[in-house]
């Protein structure tokens, strides 16, 4: 844990910290905007595809419709994968920026101890501090942020939508292979659950690896 030197120039330190705080805050705003925009584009593309299929379904045979569904939903799944991994990267960047802001607040308190009680947000950059600052209540004994918000935020929504798209593609494939409606629905649901669960676990590990290299300097048990 690093402490400020007693002879530090507080004016210069405050200027530097304020500039970095502003930069990190802008980075968080950019990541949130980018993630929301990408998810919105994905949902718009899926909605437009569904509307198009609704019109086509009135003039083609069921087998042609299933073929179109398989092709379109496969393409949507690939688009969703690209969106999913990018939103996870943005989530990691957001957590890293939030961790840095918590660390800067701690130094603000070191520069002027009388201001410590004024801060509403966290002053600690350990797991508990980062999760509390993000509104998360779980994983209190974790050694590093586990990105619970990944499952509840934009990337979690994209993962859910992507799983449903994969299930729809699998159901269409079953229909083309001669399976009945019931079996197509069951297999599609199973595929959707497998995709959602598998990518949820994978994304959680990616998130932990993205945040883990950042060393904790100001944990909650810091007496200062």
UniProtKB/TrEMBL annotation:
* Record field: transmembrane: 42-60, 66-85, 147-169, 181-203
Q: Give the source's domain of life in one word.
A: Bacteria
Write the record's keywords in alphabetical order, separated by commas.
Answer: Membrane, Transmembrane, Transmembrane helix
Protein name in UniProt: Uncharacterized protein
Q: Which species does this protein come from?
A: Lentzea roselyniae
């Amino acid at each position: 844990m690093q402490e400020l030197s007693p002879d530090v120039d507080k004016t210069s330190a405050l200027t530097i910290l304020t500039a970095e705080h502003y930069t990190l805050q802008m980075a968080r705003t950019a990541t949130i905007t980018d993630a929301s925009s990408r998810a919105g584009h994905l949902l718009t593309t899926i909605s437009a595809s569904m509307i198009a299929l609704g019109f086509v379904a009135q003039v083609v045979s069921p087998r042609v419709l299933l073929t179109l569904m398989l092709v379109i939903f496969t393409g949507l799944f690939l688009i969703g994968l690209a969106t999913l991994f990018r939103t996870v990267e943005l989530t990691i960047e957001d957590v890293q920026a939030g961790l840095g802001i918590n660390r800067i607040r701690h130094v603000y308190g070191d520069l002027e101890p009388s201001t410590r009680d004024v801060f509403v947000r966290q002053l600690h950059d350990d797991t508990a501090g980062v999760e509390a600052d993000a509104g998360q209540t779980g994983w209190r004994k974790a050694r590093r942020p586990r990105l619970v918000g990944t499952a509840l935020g934009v990337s979690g929504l994209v993962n859910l939508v992507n799983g449903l798209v994969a299930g729809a593609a699998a159901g269409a494939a079953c229909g083309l292979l001669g399976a009945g409606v019931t079996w197509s629905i069951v297999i599609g649901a199973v595929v959707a659950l497998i995709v959602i669960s598998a990518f949820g676990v994978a994304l959680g590990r990616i998130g932990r690896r993205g945040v883990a290299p950042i060393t904790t300097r100001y944990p909650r048990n810091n007496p200062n």
